[in-house]
Structures are given as structure tokens and as C-alpha cells.
Amino acid sequence: MSIHNVGQRFKSRLRTIDGRSFYGLIGKLPNNRSDINFVTPRRVLEVSPNTKITVRTTFKAPDRKVYLTADNGSISQQLEIYKTFRLFEMQQLLPWSTKIKTKNPVTGLEETTSNSPSTPIYTTLEPLSDERDSLKIPGRRFRLITGADLKVDDKVGAYTVTKIDTLLGVTIAEVK
User: Fold this and answer.
1) What is the model's pTM?
2) Which of 62, 70, 82, 169 would staple 86 via disulfide (CB 3.0–4.6 Å)?
3) Taking the domains of the chain in order of start, what are their residue ranges?
């Protein structure tokens, strides 16, 4: 038995949302790596180096939880034994629609004409701070984590995207 095959017996069969199956090992983050900026605990996925899994892959684990793969920093440029991804647990499937803009033939300006048909996407919502708008009306803000390419003003469920960041290769949106 070579060192390349030692961990194979601990791996589980996993299936991507689009139906491809692969083997991997889901574990906790090492103690020296923390994710204090996030609410839900993060995990790590180890796969063989030839596995065709990339950042933003969404898959189901044997325990029926849905995960999104993210870059694991410099560790993901690893040894030839395995490659790792940081995992975000996806908690809900929400409809996503984006605004369709067309050019007005008379004025030549872009106008929002309608919303695109909704597409279901896997997401995780985490609370941020409460805020007050210019009229001192309180409102709640949330962090939405997903593998979809969201844009500002997109609708995800009952939420509107107000800010977009890409962190670890996945979309981190601020919504309200």
C-alpha cells in the first residue's frame, strides 16, 4: 500500500448537484485555521488530485447536507497526494432573479424592463448588524454565501443584493 492510497478507505461517495459522483473526505478545519468571521462552522474537503472538482462546486454529502467548495488558500496548491477545499454548508434553496436591462430606442438610455425568470440557487444566510436608514427606520442586513454570480439589485428569495464581494472564490453578498 502506497502513501497515495492510505486515506482512500475513509473517503465517502459524494454527488455534485449536476449528478457527477466523486470520492472525498469531509473534515474539520485544522486548529490553526479559524473562520471567526462566519457564523456556521466550516469544514474541509480532501479529494484525490485528479478529481475534477473546482471552486464553486455544489455537492450533497451522505448526511444529506449540501456544501459549496471554496479556495483553501495556499494549502490548496498542495502536494501531489491530495487537494483540499474549504466548505460552506448551504442551508436553503432560494429563487434568484436578475433585472433585465434594455436600451430605449428613443432616448438611447438603458432601462430595467423586467426580472429574469427565477432560478433556484443554494445559499447560506448569516445575520450581520442591524442598521438604520436616513429616516432612522431599522432594518436587518444579512451575509448571503453562494456559488452563483450575483449582481447588485438581484433578488434572492425575499432579499435584495446591495453589495458583492468574492472571497475564497465564492460570492459573498450583503442583502437586505
Assistant:
1) 0.79
2) 70
3) 6-90, 92-175
